[in-house]
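#dry-run=false #mode=assembly
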Amino acid sequence: MFQHAPSAVARLPLAARAEALPALGGGQLHEIHAAADDWAAALAFAFAAIDAAGRRPVMLVHAARQAVLSMQPYGEGLIGLGLDPARLVLVEARDGTGMLRAGLEGARCPGLAAVVLASWRRFPEYALTASRRLVLAAERSRVPVIMLRGDAEPRPSAAHQRWLVRSARASPREANAPGLPALDVELQRRRGGASGGRWRLEWNDQDGCYREARNTTATQSAGIHDTPLSGAVVHLSAVRAGLAGDVAASRAA
Amino acid sequence: MSPPAAPPETPFALVVRAGNALRLSAVGAPAVRAGLGVGMTLADARARCPTLQTLPHDPAADAGLLERLAAHMQRFTPMVATDPPDGLILDITGCAHLFGGEAVLAAQAVADAGLTTRHAFAAHAAAARALARHGRAGGDVRDLPVTALDLSADALSGLRRAGLATLGDLARRPMAGLAARFGADAVQRLRAILGEVTNPIAARQPVAAIGARARFAEPLAHTDAVLDVLEDLLVQTARQMEARAIGGRRFVVTLERSDGARRRLVVETGLPVRDAAVVMRLLRERIDSLSDPLDPGFGFDSLTLAVPRTQPLGARQIALDSGHGASVGDDSVAALIDRLATRLGPANICQLRPRDTHIPESAQQLVPATSAASPWPTAAGRPLRPLLLLDPPAAVTTITSFPDGPPQRFRWRGQVHVVCHAEGPERIAPEWWRRRDGHIPGQHGLTRDYYRVEDAEGRRFWLFRHGLYEERSDPLWYIHGLFA
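#status=ok
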């Protein structure tokens, strides 16, 4: 997992690594919950988990009828997040079932970099069975499957991780201009690991990924480590490593 | 071959740009009578004949007409070859008697062509060609002028200076000397015209359409059995396509029911394929997504599979490490897109394509994912753009502290957002050049002032004021995008 990480992270003590943001790993299903106003933050968090240097396409499945807001991803904004818009394949399904079927087909296809499903509000078709199907398909193809849930109540599912993403106030630039993207993420559930961690992430333009904000103290509800290390650079670039990162992690373990 | 575009008595010519001059490339009969010829500059031609009408020469259209004529001439003989730019060679061996003799056949062919033509008969193609182009029908090839050899101007003037005017003169000389002076080509052509070497024609072969058909003695009433037969047909067409190194992009299945009803199933692929299993999966998808299911009724009488659209597809080596090669990944993604496009419709599988405009909502376009991708420019040095674009922009009510500034607070979806940070305006002018009367002041449309704002909860929005205050007194505010 730390194969592609900057050396600063490798030099951190072990305890700090345990607190590091868990990766949105390949071959897993992740749920990201967000309110409608925070939808862009949730989408950015999902896209940040995708290998930016790769050429494999990213599939974004949505159902127009379900959506609360009528909007579409904007190519120039994606470039700002380091993702080539030409890689994005937008699939519009008729309804929730169609979306799950298309997502399942995508999850079975190892040629994709990620499958992102955008769903809104009540989504009765997405239950334990449907999510387990997605998990099985993802495990086989090693493709990360990300289920975005907008304005939705969390329900039991087979997802590996459940995140809650909110926009956060960014450190302003000069002349009172809004700063770089910032978000608060909360790991609500995690299969086989501690949950409850909260992180304040800020976009780092130089590295082209989210990093934990330096000057804010992240609240640790897990309570394993009481004081966060000052200046800890917790990175998401390990997330970008995807499959290779996981292999490296299993070797390291 | 020039189509007559002017009344017959008006001198008419086609012109082509050669270097810096416009020259005549084809002239009509009245123009010839007026003293014009091919190769003359247009200025000279106009000086001699002020009433000359001209059109630009279109070689591609000429080639197309020649191809169509060649296809048409196949009613006289199966052996038709084109002699570009303006000749046809027909091998009528054993065909003439069907039309009542060579002369009748030629008259019919000339009438069919509907153009001013010359023709000649000879025992072989090169002689017939030389007679038609440089002599007259029924003449002797030995009386043809040396221009029939189609040599360069230097070589022709050399021949004339040596006193050799006809092919007969040349044929009496030793060939070795001719080859030494004018090249082996000249001798080859001379011997071809004289019939001393064979000069076969490359007859155009009609390309058979890719397809297969199955007829049943008894109607097939089970859809599964029909699909089995279909798979067999796909394997047959795959073999045909493999032999020609092509792959299909569009497959059309026609099912004919015993009561005369017909069903057509069409699947299209993004990349050329000839793998029966892949097409079969697409066809199953198509059958599953039919609004009314495939009803066999009393059974299907016959099945026709046609591949109307094909593309070159070479044989491909199977990778040794089957799995993670780039081509394998591409293939599987292409197959996935085809499957989804078959199920949901090609318009629902899209990709983003940049467009050269600064109006934000027009700067990108959704195109079907099966079309070719186009590269995006890099973001370096460009103003920040939102991750999501609202389509259409949502109207918001705002309170601004001063007229030309960003809003202090705005109400969107029933919620009041207090603006804490704002950046702007980024002024985007309307595309007046695309509007009718856009060049007239006041008619060019409304300018937009874009602001990037952050509210108290840390959400970043892209707002714009539609119109400057000098353009309209109460400009409306819209929210156009969401930043991460």
